[in-house]
Amino acid sequence: MTLALVVVGVLGLAVGSFLNVVIHRVPRGESLLRPTSHCPQCTAPVRPWHNVPVLGWLLLRGRCADCAAPVSARYPLVELGTAVLFVAVTARFGLSASLPAWLYLAAVAVALALIDLDVLRLPNAIVLPSYVVAPLLLLPAVVVERDWAAGLRGLIAMAALWVFYFVLSLVYPGGMGFGDVKLAGVLGLYLGWLGWSSVAVGTFAAFLLGGVVGAVLLATGRAGRRTAVPFGPSMLAGALLALFAAAPITSWYSSLLLPA
Predict the structure, then answer these.
(1) Furthest CA-CA distance within the chain
(2) Which residue, among 183, 193, 194, has the nearest Cα to 235 in the 3D structure?
(3) Which of 13, 82, 110, 165 lies 20 to 30 Å from 23 when distance is taken between CA atoms?
(4) Integer Cα distance of 38 and 46 in angstroms
(5) Cα separations in angstroms, 142 against 134, 159, 160, 203, 243
């Protein structure tokens, strides 16, 4: 298993490098293939050995090799963060038939969270294909593990969360965008696959985290009551929290309601 985690970690670094391109180009409607990686200041192409995840940034000391313009530390952090998330997901689910689906969720979560923070938008180019990709990646697990109940529960939760968020967007349009509604369906599929307790924990955690972030921004003066605050990162963080900790959180909450 240790070797598998190392391999997945290296894969995460490579995927994180690609996600940096996705995060920068998708909101701008640019191609992911052309042009190749280049400095946004002087447009000089990035040399292959400078494109090595994390190490390339360290080698250049965070600056362009041609014009010495600063390169954001977010690039290696995205690569490292994706690698850590890939390793954590693999440790959680093991080398199972469903692992590719969870790795896909991890990659999409990183990209969508940062894009939403940057431009206050969850691009259809990423969210909508996930309605096809995620079920297809989970299908082998349904067949291999014969867990038809998990597949059905995931589809029901997908529809339920979509409707729930859609109603919220109608009731409170200023606080809920339609991108959040579309993302809710994808997260519902994954959380429903895990169980209804995961759906409950992931959904509640999203609103709790969103409220805490909003309160902190207001208290520190970084946002006003009319400032738009992206909710997508809170939704994704809540789903990931449920993925790793729904069972202990549910047990703890149950113990409060039904003390021994």
Answers:
(1) 67
(2) 183
(3) 165
(4) 5
(5) 12, 19, 20, 24, 18
Give the pair of three-digit tokens for residue 48.
């292959």
Enumerate residues 6+ apart whose C-beta is below 8 A from 186: 108, 127, 130, 131, 134, 158
Q: Name 45's Cβ contacts closer than 8 Å, sequence gap at least 6.
A: 35, 36, 37, 38
d(CA 248, CA 258): 15
Structure tokens at 101: 């689906």
- The answer to whether 16 and 80 have CB atoms below 8 angstroms apart is yes
How many helices and strands in the chain, by DSSP H and E? 9, 0
Q: Which two tokens mark 240?
A: 């990931």
In the block, tokens 């977010």 appear at 74
Helix (H, G, I), strand (E, B) or coil at 35: coil
Structure tokens at 215: 């309160």
**pLDDT per residue rounded down to tens, the chain (260 residues):** 789 999 999 999 999 999 999 999 999 998 888 887 877 777 778 887 778 889 888 888 888 877 878 888 999 999 999 999 999 999 999 999 999 999 999 999 999 999 999 999 999 999 999 999 999 999 999 998 888 999 999 999 999 999 999 999 998 877 788 999 999 999 999 999 999 999 999 999 999 999 899 888 888 877 777 777 899 999 999 999 999 999 888 888 777 776 65
Q: Which two tokens stand for residue 39?
A: 């400095």
Please give the DSSP secondary-structure letter assigned to residue 46. P
Both structure tokens of 153? 């529960």
